[in-house]
Amino acid sequence: MDSLTSPLADVHPEGTEYGAAQEAHVALRYTTLDEEYTAIRERAAVLDLSGSRVLEVSGADAGGFLQRVLARDVEYLTSERCMTSLVLDEQGLVVDQVVVWGREDGMLVESSVGGGARLLEHLRSVVGDDRVEITDLTGERVLLGLEGPYAWGVVGRLVDGELAALPFESVVDTTWDGVDVLFARTGVTGEYGYKVLVPRDQAAALWAKAVEQATPAGQEALELAMLEVRQPTHHEHADGADVLTMGANWLVDITKESFIGRDAVLAAFSGGATRRTVGFSGGDTVPAAGTPVTVDGEQVGVVVHAVHSIGLGAPLGLARLDADLAAAGLRLTVGDADVTTLTSPYVTPKSWSTPII
Q1: How many CA atoms within 13 Å lie on the side-chain side of 347?
Q2: If pLDDT is split at 50, 70 and 90, which confidence band does 1 have?
Q3: Which of 64, 81, 188, 303 has the fewest CB atoms within 10 Å of its CB?
Q4: Beta-ladder partners of 93
Q5: Distance, CA of 173 to CA of 161 (rounded, Å)
């Protein structure tokens, strides 16, 4: 399967810097990280999410199939709702974190940015006797996002003011400039978030109108904002950690009677994870993944992922620690730097205190 490239590259700002996000070739940043991060946290940012594959699952057994492959219960997901879930393999390891959009006939499954090829391969491998059809709509539709404490204002000026105040995880069929689009209120940064699924041949026009109202933000700023509110990213499951070790159990419904990976998840819950993932901040430099975490010279964990947090003004990372050290407020050593473990969210989103008016 060819690497995904953005159909909007021709209308991205001059000087856009590109790079890899799993299978996708994405815009990492359009201008500067500071500017794009500030837009997400203080104003409104527009996101090119074309690195996410959108898969249509239809057919007589579509509902039952998705109920089997998703770790959360979607039996009663209506065409006006969407929800986030993990897709796991039989070992309970993460295949992808997805957003499931309810439809009248089947559902749409939105992959993480760059995670679609692996997701599609997994779904097709577990179809079995189910009467389902899995169609990759990536060549036909483009997904755009809006995030920020004033993203609702952009929605009002760009699409429809009534859509700005939709309940979280709502989905609406609507139109933009006479074109049928699918609109959802959902996001990953802790700020107000919205997504628009638009026909590919209209995506550039919608992008051009959106950047008149909001600042383009690339994958680098998006992933930083996600980390600051403890949204999982692909960096966390790249090492094969299970759900409990990652701390992503909120994306799994263990009361659900059956789903792929359930036995492994229950075994992990019963046995308890020997390591847990904890946020930390401190030091002057960003530690590399794999950097040892120590207490009094004894290694107690390892860094999974770290970046410089603009919101904290300091390095921010995730570490896998011995389970008895999975707590906030502990002083640890990462490499040669003293750090402190944190409780999430590590940065408080402005949207939490900003009303939609």
Answers
A1: 29
A2: low
A3: 64
A4: 242
A5: 15
Distance CA(118)–CA(108), nearest Å, equals 16
Q: Is the peptide bond before 287 cis (omega within 30 degrees of 0)?
A: no
Helix (H) or strand (E) run with residue 268 in it? helix 262-271
Q: Is 164:155 a contact under the CB 8 Å cutoff? A: yes
Q: Which residue matches tokens 């404490």?
A: 149
d(CA 10, CA 241): 38
Q: How many CB atoms are closer than 10 A to CB 24?
A: 25
| Residues in Cβ contact with 57 at an 8 Å cutoff, skipping those fewer than 6 apart | 65, 66, 106, 107, 108, 109, 123, 132, 133, 134
CA pair distance 218, 16, nearest whole angstrom:
9
Residue 132 near residue 62, CB atoms below 8 Å: yes
195, β-bridge pairs: 145, 184
List of residues 6+ apart from 242 with CB closer than 8 A: 91, 92, 93, 264, 265, 268, 273
Burial status of residue 202 (CB atoms within 10 A of its CB: 0-12, 13-18, 19 or more)? middle
Token pair for 126? 């577990």
Confidence of residue 270 (pLDDT cuts 50, 70, 90): confident
Rg (the chain; Cα; Å): 20
